[in-house]
Specification:
The longest helix is centred in the first third of the chain and has 68 residues. A hairpin with a 7-residue loop joins β4 and β5. It is built from 16 helices and 16 strands. By secondary structure, it is α+β, with helices and mostly antiparallel strands. About 55% of the residues lie in helices and about 20% in strands.
Protein backbone atom coordinates (compact mmCIF):
# COMPACT_ATOMS: atom_id res chain seq x y z
CA UNK A 1 0.00 0.00 0.00
CA UNK A 2 2.80 2.36 0.90
CA UNK A 3 4.52 1.54 -2.37
CA UNK A 4 1.38 2.48 -4.32
CA UNK A 5 1.01 5.76 -2.43
CA UNK A 6 4.69 6.54 -3.02
CA UNK A 7 4.36 5.89 -6.75
CA UNK A 8 1.24 8.08 -6.98
CA UNK A 9 3.03 10.92 -5.19
CA UNK A 10 6.00 10.58 -7.49
CA UNK A 11 3.74 10.57 -10.54
CA UNK A 12 1.94 13.70 -9.35
CA UNK A 13 5.24 15.42 -8.60
CA UNK A 14 6.64 14.61 -12.04
CA UNK A 15 3.41 15.46 -13.84
CA UNK A 16 2.43 18.52 -11.81
CA UNK A 17 1.65 20.76 -14.81
CA UNK A 18 -0.71 18.21 -16.29
CA UNK A 19 -2.70 17.77 -13.09
CA UNK A 20 -2.93 21.49 -12.49
CA UNK A 21 -4.46 21.88 -15.93
CA UNK A 22 -6.70 18.89 -15.28
CA UNK A 23 -7.92 20.41 -12.00
CA UNK A 24 -8.65 23.73 -13.70
CA UNK A 25 -10.73 21.96 -16.36
CA UNK A 26 -12.75 20.17 -13.67
CA UNK A 27 -13.47 23.43 -11.85
CA UNK A 28 -14.51 25.18 -15.09
CA UNK A 29 -16.73 22.41 -16.48
CA UNK A 30 -18.00 19.86 -13.96
CA UNK A 31 -18.59 22.01 -10.87
CA UNK A 32 -20.77 24.62 -12.71
CA UNK A 33 -22.69 21.75 -14.34
CA UNK A 34 -23.43 20.12 -10.98
CA UNK A 35 -24.37 23.45 -9.42
CA UNK A 36 -26.66 24.34 -12.32
CA UNK A 37 -28.42 20.95 -12.12
CA UNK A 38 -28.92 21.27 -8.36
CA UNK A 39 -30.32 24.79 -8.57
CA UNK A 40 -32.61 23.93 -11.52
CA UNK A 41 -34.02 20.86 -9.77
CA UNK A 42 -34.76 22.78 -6.57
CA UNK A 43 -36.41 25.63 -8.46
CA UNK A 44 -38.62 23.14 -10.35
CA UNK A 45 -39.46 21.31 -7.12
CA UNK A 46 -40.39 24.48 -5.20
CA UNK A 47 -42.44 25.76 -8.13
CA UNK A 48 -44.36 22.48 -8.36
CA UNK A 49 -45.08 22.45 -4.61
CA UNK A 50 -46.17 26.09 -4.65
CA UNK A 51 -48.48 25.51 -7.62
CA UNK A 52 -49.96 22.44 -5.91
CA UNK A 53 -50.69 24.38 -2.71
CA UNK A 54 -52.20 27.22 -4.73
CA UNK A 55 -54.39 24.85 -6.77
CA UNK A 56 -55.63 22.86 -3.77
CA UNK A 57 -56.32 26.09 -1.88
CA UNK A 58 -58.52 27.33 -4.74
CA UNK A 59 -60.30 23.96 -4.93
CA UNK A 60 -60.96 23.96 -1.18
CA UNK A 61 -62.38 27.49 -1.37
CA UNK A 62 -64.74 26.41 -4.14
CA UNK A 63 -65.78 23.31 -2.18
CA UNK A 64 -66.41 25.44 0.90
CA UNK A 65 -68.68 27.76 -1.08
CA UNK A 66 -70.69 24.78 -2.37
CA UNK A 67 -70.93 23.43 1.22
CA UNK A 68 -72.23 26.83 2.35
CA UNK A 69 -75.06 26.50 -0.17
CA UNK A 70 -76.05 23.11 1.30
CA UNK A 71 -75.90 24.48 4.85
CA UNK A 72 -78.01 27.43 3.77
CA UNK A 73 -80.74 25.09 2.54
CA UNK A 74 -80.82 23.41 5.96
CA UNK A 75 -80.90 26.78 7.75
CA UNK A 76 -83.78 27.90 5.53
CA UNK A 77 -85.73 24.72 6.41
CA UNK A 78 -85.13 25.38 10.13
CA UNK A 79 -86.39 28.94 9.73
CA UNK A 80 -89.53 27.79 7.93
CA UNK A 81 -90.29 25.32 10.75
CA UNK A 82 -89.59 27.89 13.50
CA UNK A 83 -91.72 30.56 11.77
CA UNK A 84 -94.68 28.21 11.26
CA UNK A 85 -97.75 29.28 13.27
CA UNK A 86 -99.01 25.70 13.40
CA UNK A 87 -95.75 24.42 14.89
CA UNK A 88 -95.65 27.29 17.37
CA UNK A 89 -99.24 26.68 18.53
CA UNK A 90 -98.68 22.93 18.92
CA UNK A 91 -95.57 23.54 21.05
CA UNK A 92 -97.34 26.15 23.21
CA UNK A 93 -100.43 23.98 23.66
CA UNK A 94 -98.42 20.87 24.49
CA UNK A 95 -96.67 22.80 27.25
CA UNK A 96 -99.84 24.41 28.63
CA UNK A 97 -102.06 21.32 28.73
CA UNK A 98 -99.49 18.65 29.50
CA UNK A 99 -100.15 16.48 32.48
CA UNK A 100 -97.70 16.81 35.34
CA UNK A 101 -95.23 13.95 35.40
CA UNK A 102 -96.10 12.77 31.91
CA UNK A 103 -92.87 12.41 29.95
CA UNK A 104 -94.31 11.77 26.48
CA UNK A 105 -96.76 13.63 24.29
CA UNK A 106 -100.11 12.09 23.55
CA UNK A 107 -100.52 10.21 20.33
CA UNK A 108 -102.65 12.82 18.58
CA UNK A 109 -100.24 15.66 19.31
CA UNK A 110 -97.31 13.56 18.15
CA UNK A 111 -99.10 12.66 14.90
CA UNK A 112 -99.98 16.29 14.12
CA UNK A 113 -96.45 17.53 14.76
CA UNK A 114 -94.90 14.75 12.63
CA UNK A 115 -97.18 15.75 9.77
CA UNK A 116 -96.09 19.35 10.15
CA UNK A 117 -92.40 18.41 10.13
CA UNK A 118 -92.75 16.24 7.02
CA UNK A 119 -94.53 19.05 5.18
CA UNK A 120 -91.63 21.42 5.72
CA UNK A 121 -88.89 19.14 4.42
CA UNK A 122 -87.03 21.10 1.72
CA UNK A 123 -84.33 18.62 0.84
CA UNK A 124 -84.44 15.07 2.19
CA UNK A 125 -81.24 13.94 0.39
CA UNK A 126 -78.86 15.14 3.11
CA UNK A 127 -81.23 15.20 6.16
CA UNK A 128 -81.38 11.99 8.18
CA UNK A 129 -83.92 12.99 10.88
CA UNK A 130 -85.59 15.97 12.53
CA UNK A 131 -86.67 16.22 16.20
CA UNK A 132 -88.87 18.87 17.85
CA UNK A 133 -88.74 19.24 21.66
CA UNK A 134 -91.22 21.23 23.72
CA UNK A 135 -90.17 23.16 26.82
CA UNK A 136 -90.25 19.92 28.85
CA UNK A 137 -87.91 18.27 26.28
CA UNK A 138 -90.55 15.84 25.11
CA UNK A 139 -89.66 14.86 21.55
CA UNK A 140 -91.51 14.46 18.30
CA UNK A 141 -89.12 12.94 15.71
CA UNK A 142 -89.38 12.26 12.02
CA UNK A 143 -86.87 10.27 10.00
CA UNK A 144 -84.24 7.61 10.75
CA UNK A 145 -84.76 6.08 14.24
CA UNK A 146 -81.05 5.22 14.56
CA UNK A 147 -79.97 8.86 14.50
CA UNK A 148 -82.49 9.86 17.24
CA UNK A 149 -80.65 7.97 19.95
CA UNK A 150 -81.70 7.39 23.55
CA UNK A 151 -84.24 10.24 23.66
CA UNK A 152 -86.62 8.17 21.60
CA UNK A 153 -87.30 5.75 24.45
CA UNK A 154 -85.73 7.27 27.55
CA UNK A 155 -87.83 8.72 30.34
CA UNK A 156 -85.17 11.19 31.44
CA UNK A 157 -85.48 14.12 29.00
CA UNK A 158 -84.26 16.74 31.41
CA UNK A 159 -80.68 15.57 30.78
CA UNK A 160 -80.70 17.70 27.60
CA UNK A 161 -80.64 20.89 29.65
CA UNK A 162 -77.33 19.77 31.23
CA UNK A 163 -75.47 19.19 27.95
CA UNK A 164 -72.87 21.54 26.48
CA UNK A 165 -74.51 21.66 23.10
CA UNK A 166 -77.81 22.82 24.61
CA UNK A 167 -76.16 25.56 26.64
CA UNK A 168 -74.35 26.64 23.48
CA UNK A 169 -77.65 26.86 21.57
CA UNK A 170 -79.16 28.95 24.37
CA UNK A 171 -76.17 31.34 24.23
CA UNK A 172 -76.70 31.93 20.51
CA UNK A 173 -80.26 33.19 21.23
CA UNK A 174 -81.99 31.27 18.49
CA UNK A 175 -79.30 31.31 15.80
CA UNK A 176 -78.73 27.85 14.25
CA UNK A 177 -75.48 26.14 15.21
CA UNK A 178 -73.72 23.18 13.59
CA UNK A 179 -72.03 20.52 15.71
CA UNK A 180 -69.59 17.95 14.35
CA UNK A 181 -71.35 15.02 16.03
CA UNK A 182 -74.88 13.71 16.52
CA UNK A 183 -76.11 15.37 19.75
CA UNK A 184 -78.87 12.80 20.25
CA UNK A 185 -76.97 9.59 19.50
CA UNK A 186 -73.55 10.77 20.81
CA UNK A 187 -70.97 8.09 19.89
CA UNK A 188 -73.58 5.55 18.79
CA UNK A 189 -73.87 7.09 15.32
CA UNK A 190 -70.81 8.44 13.47
CA UNK A 191 -72.55 8.87 10.10
CA UNK A 192 -74.45 12.05 11.01
CA UNK A 193 -73.88 15.42 12.63
CA UNK A 194 -76.42 17.83 14.07
CA UNK A 195 -77.72 21.35 13.64
CA UNK A 196 -79.50 22.80 16.70
CA UNK A 197 -81.84 25.82 16.85
CA UNK A 198 -83.58 27.17 19.97
CA UNK A 199 -87.25 27.99 19.24
CA UNK A 200 -88.76 31.15 20.73
CA UNK A 201 -92.19 32.79 20.66
CA UNK A 202 -91.85 35.66 18.15
CA UNK A 203 -94.99 37.37 19.47
CA UNK A 204 -93.18 38.59 22.58
CA UNK A 205 -90.54 40.88 21.08
CA UNK A 206 -89.22 42.41 24.30
CA UNK A 207 -89.62 39.36 26.54
CA UNK A 208 -88.77 36.40 24.35
CA UNK A 209 -90.03 33.10 25.64
CA UNK A 210 -88.61 29.68 24.79
CA UNK A 211 -91.20 27.35 23.33
CA UNK A 212 -89.03 24.43 22.19
CA UNK A 213 -85.91 23.06 20.56
CA UNK A 214 -85.22 21.92 16.96
CA UNK A 215 -82.54 19.31 16.20
CA UNK A 216 -81.74 18.38 12.58
CA UNK A 217 -79.44 15.37 12.03
CA UNK A 218 -77.49 15.67 8.73
CA UNK A 219 -75.73 12.91 6.81
CA UNK A 220 -71.96 13.27 6.64
CA UNK A 221 -72.10 11.74 3.19
CA UNK A 222 -73.12 15.18 1.88
CA UNK A 223 -69.42 16.08 1.91
CA UNK A 224 -68.58 13.21 -0.45
CA UNK A 225 -70.55 14.96 -3.19
CA UNK A 226 -68.64 18.19 -2.63
CA UNK A 227 -65.13 16.94 -1.84
CA UNK A 228 -64.04 14.66 -4.67
CA UNK A 229 -60.50 13.53 -5.48
CA UNK A 230 -59.26 10.55 -7.46
CA UNK A 231 -55.72 10.59 -6.05
CA UNK A 232 -54.55 8.80 -2.91
CA UNK A 233 -54.89 11.98 -0.85
CA UNK A 234 -57.02 12.95 2.14
CA UNK A 235 -59.73 15.58 1.90
CA UNK A 236 -61.13 16.08 5.41
CA UNK A 237 -63.51 18.37 7.24
CA UNK A 238 -62.18 19.19 10.72
CA UNK A 239 -64.12 20.81 13.56
CA UNK A 240 -61.29 22.98 14.87
CA UNK A 241 -63.59 24.61 17.44
CA UNK A 242 -63.34 21.50 19.65
CA UNK A 243 -60.25 20.81 21.72
CA UNK A 244 -57.67 19.09 19.54
CA UNK A 245 -60.06 19.14 16.58
CA UNK A 246 -62.63 16.55 15.54
CA UNK A 247 -62.80 14.88 12.14
CA UNK A 248 -66.29 15.42 10.73
CA UNK A 249 -65.60 13.75 7.38
CA UNK A 250 -62.69 12.34 5.38
CA UNK A 251 -62.57 10.53 2.06
CA UNK A 252 -61.25 6.93 1.96
CA UNK A 253 -57.43 6.93 1.92
CA UNK A 254 -54.48 5.07 3.41
CA UNK A 255 -53.45 8.31 5.10
CA UNK A 256 -56.56 8.22 7.32
CA UNK A 257 -54.87 5.67 9.56
CA UNK A 258 -52.00 8.05 10.23
CA UNK A 259 -54.43 10.88 11.02
CA UNK A 260 -56.69 8.81 13.30
CA UNK A 261 -53.77 7.37 15.29
CA UNK A 262 -53.55 10.54 17.37
CA UNK A 263 -56.36 11.87 19.54
CA UNK A 264 -55.45 15.43 18.63
CA UNK A 265 -56.27 15.87 14.95
CA UNK A 266 -54.63 19.31 14.59
CA UNK A 267 -51.38 18.09 16.11
CA UNK A 268 -51.56 15.11 13.73
CA UNK A 269 -51.53 17.56 10.83
CA UNK A 270 -48.42 19.27 12.15
CA UNK A 271 -46.77 15.86 12.53
CA UNK A 272 -47.68 14.99 8.94
CA UNK A 273 -46.08 18.22 7.71
CA UNK A 274 -42.83 17.26 9.44
CA UNK A 275 -43.02 13.83 7.78
CA UNK A 276 -43.07 15.30 4.25
CA UNK A 277 -46.80 15.80 3.64
CA UNK A 278 -48.33 18.84 1.96
CA UNK A 279 -51.30 20.24 3.91
CA UNK A 280 -53.67 22.87 2.48
CA UNK A 281 -56.65 24.21 4.41
CA UNK A 282 -59.58 26.61 4.12
CA UNK A 283 -62.08 27.72 6.79
CA UNK A 284 -65.80 27.38 6.10
CA UNK A 285 -67.71 30.58 6.82
CA UNK A 286 -70.91 28.99 8.07
CA UNK A 287 -69.48 26.50 10.57
CA UNK A 288 -65.86 27.70 11.11
CA UNK A 289 -64.83 24.15 10.26
CA UNK A 290 -61.58 23.60 8.37
CA UNK A 291 -61.54 21.91 4.96
CA UNK A 292 -58.16 20.21 4.62
CA UNK A 293 -56.30 18.58 1.72
CA UNK A 294 -53.38 16.27 2.59
CA UNK A 295 -51.08 14.56 0.10
CA UNK A 296 -47.64 12.98 0.15
CA UNK A 297 -44.97 15.28 -1.22
CA UNK A 298 -43.03 12.38 -2.72
CA UNK A 299 -46.14 11.30 -4.71
CA UNK A 300 -46.51 14.82 -6.02
CA UNK A 301 -42.84 15.00 -6.97
CA UNK A 302 -42.69 11.63 -8.76
CA UNK A 303 -42.59 13.27 -12.17
CA UNK A 304 -40.05 15.90 -11.13
CA UNK A 305 -37.92 13.18 -9.52
CA UNK A 306 -37.90 11.32 -12.82
CA UNK A 307 -36.80 14.50 -14.56
CA UNK A 308 -34.15 14.97 -11.88
CA UNK A 309 -32.84 11.42 -12.36
CA UNK A 310 -32.69 11.87 -16.14
CA UNK A 311 -30.97 15.25 -15.74
CA UNK A 312 -28.48 13.79 -13.27
CA UNK A 313 -27.76 10.89 -15.63
CA UNK A 314 -27.14 13.23 -18.56
CA UNK A 315 -24.98 15.46 -16.35
CA UNK A 316 -22.99 12.41 -15.19
CA UNK A 317 -22.37 11.32 -18.79
CA UNK A 318 -21.31 14.85 -19.78
CA UNK A 319 -19.10 15.06 -16.70
CA UNK A 320 -17.47 11.74 -17.56
CA UNK A 321 -16.83 12.88 -21.13
CA UNK A 322 -15.47 16.19 -19.80
CA UNK A 323 -13.16 14.33 -17.41
CA UNK A 324 -11.80 12.10 -20.15
CA UNK A 325 -11.39 15.00 -22.57
CA UNK A 326 -9.71 17.14 -19.90
CA UNK A 327 -7.34 14.32 -19.00
CA UNK A 328 -6.34 13.78 -22.64
CA UNK A 329 -5.98 17.49 -23.39
CA UNK A 330 -4.00 18.09 -20.20
CA UNK A 331 -1.57 15.38 -21.30
CA UNK A 332 -1.15 16.99 -24.72
CA UNK A 333 -0.64 20.44 -23.22
CA UNK A 334 1.82 19.29 -20.57
CA UNK A 335 3.83 16.88 -22.75
CA UNK A 336 5.95 19.53 -24.58
CA UNK A 337 6.81 21.22 -21.28
CA UNK A 338 7.82 17.92 -19.70
CA UNK A 339 9.91 16.98 -22.72
CA UNK A 340 11.64 20.37 -22.69
CA UNK A 341 12.28 20.08 -18.98
CA UNK A 342 13.71 16.55 -19.35
CA UNK A 343 15.88 17.52 -22.32
CA UNK A 344 17.21 20.57 -20.49
CA UNK A 345 18.04 18.61 -17.34
CA UNK A 346 19.69 15.80 -19.37
CA UNK A 347 21.68 18.33 -21.35
CA UNK A 348 22.78 20.12 -18.18
CA UNK A 349 23.80 16.86 -16.53
CA UNK A 350 25.78 15.86 -19.60
CA UNK A 351 27.43 19.25 -19.65
CA UNK A 352 28.48 19.25 -16.00
CA UNK A 353 29.00 15.52 -15.48
CA UNK A 354 28.74 13.91 -12.08
CA UNK A 355 31.28 16.02 -10.28
CA UNK A 356 30.46 18.88 -7.90
CA UNK A 357 27.02 19.88 -6.73
CA UNK A 358 24.86 18.34 -9.47
CA UNK A 359 21.67 20.16 -8.43
CA UNK A 360 23.30 23.60 -8.36
CA UNK A 361 25.16 22.97 -11.61
CA UNK A 362 21.97 21.76 -13.28
CA UNK A 363 20.08 24.90 -12.28
CA UNK A 364 22.93 27.07 -13.57
CA UNK A 365 23.03 25.19 -16.84
CA UNK A 366 19.29 25.58 -17.31
CA UNK A 367 19.57 29.35 -16.74
CA UNK A 368 22.42 29.62 -19.24
CA UNK A 369 20.44 27.64 -21.81
CA UNK A 370 17.37 29.84 -21.55
CA UNK A 371 19.53 32.97 -21.77
CA UNK A 372 21.11 31.71 -24.98
CA UNK A 373 17.70 30.83 -26.41
CA UNK A 374 16.46 34.35 -25.60
CA UNK A 375 19.41 35.98 -27.42
CA UNK A 376 18.91 33.77 -30.47
CA UNK A 377 15.22 34.64 -30.57
CA UNK A 378 15.99 38.36 -30.51
CA UNK A 379 18.44 37.98 -33.42
CA UNK A 380 15.91 35.98 -35.42
CA UNK A 381 13.21 38.62 -34.82
CA UNK A 382 15.56 41.37 -36.01
CA UNK A 383 16.37 39.46 -39.19
CA UNK A 384 12.69 38.86 -39.78
CA UNK A 385 11.91 42.60 -39.51
CA UNK A 386 14.63 43.53 -42.04
CA UNK A 387 13.36 40.82 -44.39
CA UNK A 388 9.82 42.15 -44.17
CA UNK A 389 10.99 45.72 -44.90
CA UNK A 390 12.84 44.58 -48.03
CA UNK A 391 9.80 42.61 -49.15
CA UNK A 392 7.57 45.68 -48.74
CA UNK A 393 10.03 47.82 -50.70
CA UNK A 394 9.98 45.33 -53.58
CA UNK A 395 6.17 45.24 -53.56
CA UNK A 396 6.02 49.04 -53.59
CA UNK A 397 8.28 49.30 -56.61
CA UNK A 398 6.27 46.67 -58.46
CA UNK A 399 3.03 48.55 -57.83
CA UNK A 400 4.54 51.84 -59.02
CA UNK A 401 5.71 50.16 -62.22
CA UNK A 402 2.11 49.16 -62.91
CA UNK A 403 0.74 52.68 -62.42
CA UNK A 404 3.25 54.70 -64.53
CA UNK A 405 2.35 53.18 -67.94
CA UNK A 406 -1.30 53.86 -67.22
CA UNK A 407 -0.67 57.59 -66.86
CA UNK A 408 1.60 57.70 -69.90
CA UNK A 409 -1.06 56.08 -72.05
CA UNK A 410 -3.73 58.59 -71.03
CA UNK A 411 -1.41 61.55 -71.63
CA UNK A 412 -0.38 60.38 -75.12
CA UNK A 413 -4.02 59.75 -75.91
CA UNK A 414 -4.84 63.36 -74.96
CA UNK A 415 -2.05 64.76 -77.15
CA UNK A 416 -3.21 62.69 -80.07
CA UNK A 417 -6.81 63.86 -79.93
CA UNK A 418 -5.72 67.46 -79.43
CA UNK A 419 -3.64 67.31 -82.59
CA UNK A 420 -6.43 65.74 -84.64
CA UNK A 421 -9.30 67.89 -83.50
CA UNK A 422 -7.86 71.41 -83.00
CA UNK A 423 -4.71 71.63 -85.21
CA UNK A 424 -3.32 74.66 -83.35
CA UNK A 425 -0.02 75.71 -81.74
CA UNK A 426 -1.31 74.99 -78.27
CA UNK A 427 0.07 71.51 -78.70
CA UNK A 428 3.47 72.99 -77.77
CA UNK A 429 2.20 73.79 -74.31
CA UNK A 430 0.94 70.26 -73.98
CA UNK A 431 4.36 68.94 -74.88
CA UNK A 432 5.97 71.16 -72.20
CA UNK A 433 3.50 70.00 -69.59
CA UNK A 434 4.09 66.40 -70.60
CA UNK A 435 7.87 66.70 -70.31
CA UNK A 436 7.58 68.22 -66.83
CA UNK A 437 5.26 65.42 -65.85
CA UNK A 438 7.81 62.83 -66.94
CA UNK A 439 10.49 64.52 -64.85
CA UNK A 440 8.32 64.50 -61.75
CA UNK A 441 7.30 60.88 -62.35
CA UNK A 442 10.89 59.69 -62.61
CA UNK A 443 12.14 61.80 -59.64
CA UNK A 444 15.61 60.27 -60.01
CA UNK A 445 14.35 56.90 -58.79
CA UNK A 446 13.14 58.21 -55.41
CA UNK A 447 9.81 56.90 -54.04
CA UNK A 448 9.00 59.99 -51.96
CA UNK A 449 8.69 63.56 -53.28
CA UNK A 450 7.69 66.82 -51.56
CA UNK A 451 3.97 67.52 -51.53
CA UNK A 452 4.65 70.74 -53.49
CA UNK A 453 6.07 68.71 -56.43
CA UNK A 454 3.08 66.28 -56.31
CA UNK A 455 0.78 69.34 -56.59
CA UNK A 456 2.90 70.67 -59.49
CA UNK A 457 2.43 67.31 -61.17
CA UNK A 458 -1.35 67.79 -60.90
CA UNK A 459 -1.11 71.31 -62.40
CA UNK A 460 0.72 70.03 -65.51
CA UNK A 461 -1.76 67.22 -65.92
CA UNK A 462 -4.73 69.61 -65.71
CA UNK A 463 -3.08 71.92 -68.28
CA UNK A 464 -3.02 69.03 -70.76
CA UNK A 465 -6.62 68.03 -70.05
CA UNK A 466 -8.00 71.59 -70.27
CA UNK A 467 -6.39 71.96 -73.71
CA UNK A 468 -8.24 68.87 -74.80
CA UNK A 469 -11.59 69.76 -73.24
CA UNK A 470 -11.48 73.51 -73.93
CA UNK A 471 -11.09 74.64 -70.34
CA UNK A 472 -14.14 72.77 -69.03
CA UNK A 473 -12.42 71.88 -65.74
CA UNK A 474 -11.86 74.31 -62.86
CA UNK A 475 -9.30 73.34 -60.26
CA UNK A 476 -9.37 74.66 -56.66
CA UNK A 477 -6.42 73.94 -54.40
CA UNK A 478 -6.45 74.57 -50.62
CA UNK A 479 -3.37 73.01 -48.96
CA UNK A 480 -1.88 74.22 -45.68
CA UNK A 481 1.61 75.76 -46.25
CA UNK A 482 3.10 73.50 -43.53
CA UNK A 483 2.45 70.50 -45.80
CA UNK A 484 4.29 71.70 -48.90
CA UNK A 485 7.78 70.60 -47.79
CA UNK A 486 6.66 67.28 -46.27
CA UNK A 487 7.42 64.11 -48.26
CA UNK A 488 4.61 62.10 -49.84
CA UNK A 489 4.42 58.89 -51.81
CA UNK A 490 4.90 59.63 -55.50
CA UNK A 491 1.73 59.49 -57.65
CA UNK A 492 -0.57 59.23 -54.61
CA UNK A 493 -2.85 62.21 -55.41
CA UNK A 494 -2.61 62.61 -59.21
CA UNK A 495 -4.46 59.35 -60.12
CA UNK A 496 -7.54 60.54 -58.20
CA UNK A 497 -7.58 63.86 -60.08
CA UNK A 498 -7.30 61.86 -63.33
CA UNK A 499 -10.22 59.62 -62.30
CA UNK A 500 -12.29 62.68 -61.39
CA UNK A 501 -11.89 63.99 -64.96
CA UNK A 502 -12.40 60.76 -66.90
CA UNK A 503 -15.19 59.24 -64.81
CA UNK A 504 -16.82 62.25 -63.18
CA UNK A 505 -16.52 65.42 -65.26
CA UNK A 506 -16.08 64.16 -68.85
CA UNK A 507 -19.54 62.46 -68.98
CA UNK A 508 -21.09 65.61 -67.46
CA UNK A 509 -22.65 68.23 -69.71
CA UNK A 510 -20.93 71.59 -69.25
CA UNK A 511 -18.16 72.69 -66.92
CA UNK A 512 -16.99 70.96 -63.77
CA UNK A 513 -14.87 71.62 -60.69
CA UNK A 514 -12.22 69.62 -58.89
CA UNK A 515 -11.30 70.70 -55.34
CA UNK A 516 -8.22 69.41 -53.52
CA UNK A 517 -7.71 70.15 -49.80
CA UNK A 518 -4.80 69.22 -47.54
CA UNK A 519 -4.52 69.74 -43.78
CA UNK A 520 -2.78 68.50 -40.64
CA UNK A 521 -5.00 67.12 -37.86
CA UNK A 522 -2.93 66.06 -34.87
CA UNK A 523 -0.50 63.42 -36.07
CA UNK A 524 -2.58 62.76 -39.21
CA UNK A 525 -2.16 64.21 -42.71
CA UNK A 526 -5.51 64.37 -44.52
CA UNK A 527 -6.15 65.01 -48.25
CA UNK A 528 -9.63 65.23 -49.84
CA UNK A 529 -10.25 65.33 -53.62
CA UNK A 530 -13.85 66.14 -54.61
CA UNK A 531 -15.60 66.74 -57.92
CA UNK A 532 -19.12 67.78 -58.90
CA UNK A 533 -19.43 65.23 -61.71
CA UNK A 534 -21.94 62.50 -62.47
CA UNK A 535 -21.07 60.39 -59.42
CA UNK A 536 -20.77 56.60 -59.11
CA UNK A 537 -23.77 54.29 -59.29
CA UNK A 538 -22.06 51.10 -58.04
CA UNK A 539 -19.57 51.93 -55.26
CA UNK A 540 -18.88 48.26 -54.50
CA UNK A 541 -17.67 47.60 -58.06
CA UNK A 542 -15.40 50.65 -57.91
CA UNK A 543 -14.04 49.65 -54.49
CA UNK A 544 -13.05 46.24 -55.83
CA UNK A 545 -11.43 47.73 -58.97
CA UNK A 546 -7.77 47.20 -59.80
CA UNK A 547 -6.69 50.87 -59.73
CA UNK A 548 -8.19 51.77 -56.34
CA UNK A 549 -6.92 48.51 -54.86
CA UNK A 550 -3.34 49.29 -56.01
CA UNK A 551 -3.34 52.79 -54.52
CA UNK A 552 -4.73 51.50 -51.21
CA UNK A 553 -2.02 48.81 -51.03
CA UNK A 554 0.73 51.37 -51.76
CA UNK A 555 -0.68 53.60 -49.01
CA UNK A 556 -0.73 50.82 -46.40
CA UNK A 557 2.69 49.45 -47.35
CA UNK A 558 4.38 52.79 -46.72
CA UNK A 559 2.27 54.44 -44.02
CA UNK A 560 1.02 51.38 -42.12
CA UNK A 561 -2.23 49.42 -41.75
CA UNK A 562 -4.00 52.24 -39.89
CA UNK A 563 -3.88 54.41 -43.03
CA UNK A 564 -7.26 54.77 -44.76
CA UNK A 565 -8.60 55.59 -48.19
CA UNK A 566 -12.35 56.38 -48.14
CA UNK A 567 -14.57 56.76 -51.21
CA UNK A 568 -18.02 58.41 -51.13
CA UNK A 569 -20.29 59.41 -54.01
CA UNK A 570 -23.81 60.51 -54.93
CA UNK A 571 -25.23 60.15 -58.42
CA UNK A 572 -25.44 63.47 -60.30
CA UNK A 573 -23.83 65.27 -57.31
CA UNK A 574 -20.21 64.16 -57.35
CA UNK A 575 -17.54 62.01 -55.74
CA UNK A 576 -15.12 62.53 -52.82
CA UNK A 577 -11.91 60.72 -51.91
CA UNK A 578 -10.36 61.07 -48.43
CA UNK A 579 -6.77 59.89 -47.79
CA UNK A 580 -5.63 59.77 -44.16
CA UNK A 581 -2.12 58.73 -43.04
CA UNK A 582 0.64 59.49 -40.59
CA UNK A 583 3.87 61.11 -41.81
CA UNK A 584 6.33 58.50 -43.13
CA UNK A 585 9.40 57.85 -40.96
CA UNK A 586 12.86 58.51 -42.39
CA UNK A 587 13.79 54.82 -42.44
CA UNK A 588 10.94 54.18 -44.87
CA UNK A 589 12.04 56.93 -47.27
CA UNK A 590 15.07 55.06 -48.50
Amino acid sequence: MRLIIRRVRKHLRNDKIRYKYFLIMICLSILPLVLLGFISFNIAKNTLVQNQLETTGNNLRTSSEVTDLLFRNIINMERVISWSNSVREELIDSAAFSEVGKNVLDENTTKRMQDLISSYFIDTQDIDSVCLFDVYFRPVCYGNDKSIGKYHSSKIYSDISKTDWYRKSVSTQGRPIFLSYNVLANNEDDTTFSSVKLLRDPRNVFETKQIGLLVVNIKKSMFSRVLKDDSDSVIAVIDSTRDGGNTVFSNPSDLNNEISDGKNTLSSFETLKSKGYLVSSYTNQTTDWTLTYITKEKDLLKQSNKIGIITASIAAIIALIALMTSYILSGKVARPWLQLKKMTIDWAKGLWGSGGNNETDTIGAIGETFQRITVENMELNEKLVHSQLKEREAELRALQAQIKPHFLYNTLDSIYWMAILQKNQDIAEIAVALSETFKLSLNKGEDLIPIAKELEHIHHYLTIQNFRYQNRFHYIEDVEPELLDKPILKLLLQPFVENAIYHGLEPKCGEGTIELKGLIEGEWIIFTICDDGVGIEDLSATESGYGLKNVRERLMLLYGQDSTLTLSSKVNEGTCIEIRFREAKEEKQC
